[in-house]
Amino acid sequence: MLSKKTKYGLKALAFLASQKGKGPVQIAEIAKHETISQKFLESILLSLRKTGFLGSKKGKGGGYYLIKEPKEVLMTDIMRVLEGPIAMVPCVSLNFYEKCDDCPSEDDCSVHMLMLKVRDSALEVYRNNTLADLVT
Amino acid sequence: MLSKKTKYGLKALAFLASQKGKGPVQIAEIAKHETISQKFLESILLSLRKTGFLGSKKGKGGGYYLIKEPKEVLMTDIMRVLEGPIAMVPCVSLNFYEKCDDCPSEDDCSVHMLMLKVRDSALEVYRNNTLADLVT
DNA sequence: GATTATCCTATTAAGTCTATAGGGTAATAG
DNA sequence: CTATTACCCTATAGACTTAATAGGATAATC
Fold first, then answer.
1. Does domain B4-66 correspond to CATH entry 1.10.10.10?
2. Does residue B61 reach within 7 angstroms of strand C, measured from its CB?
3. What is the pLDDT of residue A65?
4. Choosing a second label site near A119 at 20 to 30 A (CA), which of A53, B2, B61, B125?
5. Helical (H) or strand (E) element with B56
6. Summary mean pLDDT of chain B
7. What pLDDT, in 10s, does the model give residues A9-37?
């Protein structure tokens, strides 16, 4: 299940991409347009700023804006920041690898190979889509 | 994230597939071999029996056994029973469709199309893998 | 009829997710 | 310089889900 945080984050990013070139957009405007709790959205945008996707400007006329061109922003990078690992088990995660605590051996795990295939198929989608693809 | 229920269920099914032809296998034996809490596994096996994947025999010499040939059991069917929807949002789910409560319109949702692609890619993997593929 | 092993319900402990509260800080306009 | 605007940051609470446990009921076998 996709978390609300990720879903709202994606919607906000897509909205900002569609407003590209019009200067900073206020949280309140994004929240209203996408029907998202403003306070919750605030924390999501903050994390997107800290991870380098968004810039912000304070005070009157301030708001959030995209730093890169939508076409340059891969879905893999967005998803990892918002949702975390793309893999469904830590033992097949590229960026968040961990040994599964309930598995004595990865080679003997009947689930390992299947989840590897699922991860690869998801990765292919995310690698072939950018923020620009969310807008059109 | 894959739930423990699903992971344990898959491991149990794979073990039963590897023991195919040796008669019923006791819960205790499966739990020990896969290092799973026996009581928790009990409830998982029960749900797999109620959904037609496993048969069971009570009393001495009893246990669980596969009903179909491992090659005949598609991963799509197993995953839907154990994990639930394959889609990451209800609005792109084939078997568990629901309108997203936070979306006024699916056509205007920037996330919808992407999640459709992710679902399709996962489906392709699950449709091309059977229980037999977990064993080898 | 004693033993074995599945069947079934209820409950709890832990963790995560979503959202809210309440104020602090910086920039801008006049 | 001061009032206003809008982002910044931490803490916390409520709801929900998951993982696991407890305790016994039921059915089959020897």
1. yes
2. yes
3. 96
4. A53
5. strand B54-57
6. 96
7. 999 999 999 999 899 999 999 999 999 99
Residue pointed to by tokens 């009581």: B39
Give the tokens for residue B85: 């929807």
Residues of A in contact with B79 (CB under 8 A): none
Residues paired with B83 in a beta bridge: none
pLDDT, tens digit (0-9, with 9 covering 90-100), for B102-111: 999 999 899 9
The residue type at A46:
L
Q: Is B115 on the interface with A (CB under 8 A)?
A: yes
pLDDT in tens, B33-91: 999 999 999 999 999 999 999 999 999 999 999 999 999 999 999 999 999 999 999 99
Q: How far is the CA of B60 from the C1' of D18 (A)?
A: 33
**Cα–Cα distances in angstroms (integers) from residue A51 to residues A81, A128, B106, in the given order:** 7, 21, 29
Please report where in the chains the tokens 């993997």 appear, as a residue.
B125
Does B60 contact strand D, using a CB cutoff of 7 Å?
yes
Does A117 reach chain B within 8 Å, measured CB to CB? yes
